[in-house]
Automatic annotation (TrEMBL), chains A, B:
HTH tetR-type domain ranges (all copies): 2-62
Organism: Microbispora siamensis
Name of protein: TetR family transcriptional regulator
Residue ranges of DNA binding: 25-44
Keyword Cell membrane carried by entry: no
InterPro entries per record: DesT_TetR_C, Homeodomain-like_sf, HTH-type_TetR-like_transc_reg, HTH_TetR
One Pfam family cited in the UniProt record for this chain: TetR_N
Length: 203, 203
């Protein structure tokens, strides 16, 4: 990869993380990277492409952090994954909030694809951590719901910050167990899964 | 309101509900409404404005449907509200899926605001149905999570359709109860709320 391009993306990500995208200009990114405006245009053509590149980079960073293998059973790994997720949310606060509240200009649907890709990879990671091969419909809906809950909780936390972050993370783990209990009434396989998960969290 | 404009919006909503926005042209909308291309431009200036107007109309329609007073206690009202929500999802399938997967062109963030407005009104309706005055942080996060779950379940159902819709709706009501149980460990007020809700569903 081109190193100059990477530096521009890093500068853009830093700015898009701390400000609304409308308030970040190509000139800001150039100044922050110690580059010329012309160089930014050379690599990215415009702000939309730069935003998409920064978002891809953020998504890759989040994925790398979540993939770090935690200690313990699946629910402990879920818990430590949540801590890393909320670290990421906090570091990219303005950009995360703006993106998930609706996001800036998006012609080609690329932004939606990136966001959707993050959700799908989170889902696959959780399915893998839980040792599930092929989730049935009730479990799939449940885990997708939980991923959406985590995203929503991230937004809510940035807006209100009226709970301790650690308590919010515990609430989300409790939500996972609660959601799996609800799903177990619809799919006996989830009941078996719950039995394997719950001893693990008490060990 | 201008009746011709309303007819164009209705035609646009019908098309945007059944097709991806990229596949709907101004000419399609004009033809479907028996209007000229010039008239569409006269009222809306372009496809983006027409899309936003159609989306606002869909959001108002969804809200009107959800506000219909159901019978019974809060959980029964939740259940009948879910049926009306999924009717709406089904009738606007392509548009709903495209919008929530990331959505089409959106310069001003209006689309995000409309989607966010729907979520906020759903949240307020549920808070009201449950007879809660001012939800604390744990309850607020829980109810927002549930609204996100419903949206996600709507998307999942359009993609897979491998559960009965009625069963998916029951799963979501079970999720609400399960999520409130999880929240009750974080806020004693939610425990009291649960006690008032659960007798109601068995009556």
């Amino acid at each position: 990869m081109d190193r100059r391009r990477e530096e521009l993306i890093a500068a853009a990500l830093e700015l898009f993380s701390r400000h609304d995208a409308e308030d970040v200009s190509i000139d800001d990114v150039a100044a922050s990277a110690g580059a010329s405006r012309a160089l930014v245009y050379h690599y990215f053509g415009g702000k939309q492409e730069l935003y998409v590149a920064a978002l891809r980079s953020a998504a890759a960073e989040l994925q790398a952090r979540l993939q770090t293998q935690g200690e313990g059973g699946p629910l402990e790994q879920l818990s430590s994954g949540l801590t890393r997720y909320f670290d990421f949310v906090e570091e990219h606060a303005a950009g995360f909030a703006a993106l998930l509240r609706g996001g800036p200009a998006n012609r080609a649907g690329e932004i939606g694809e990136i966001v959707d890709g993050v959700r799908q990879r989170m889902l696959r990671m959780i399915v893998h951590q839980m040792g599930v091969d092929a989730p049935g419909p009730a479990l799939r809906v449940t885990l997708r719901s939980w991923v959406a809950s985590v995203e929503t909780a991230g937004l809510d936390w940035l807006e209100h910050r009226d709970m301790e972050r650690a308590e919010l993370e515990r609430l989300l783990v409790d939500q996972m167990v609660a959601l799996l209990r609800a799903a177990s009434g619809h799919d006996p396989g989830v009941r078996v899964l719950l039995e394997t998960l719950l001893p693990a969290v008490n060990s």
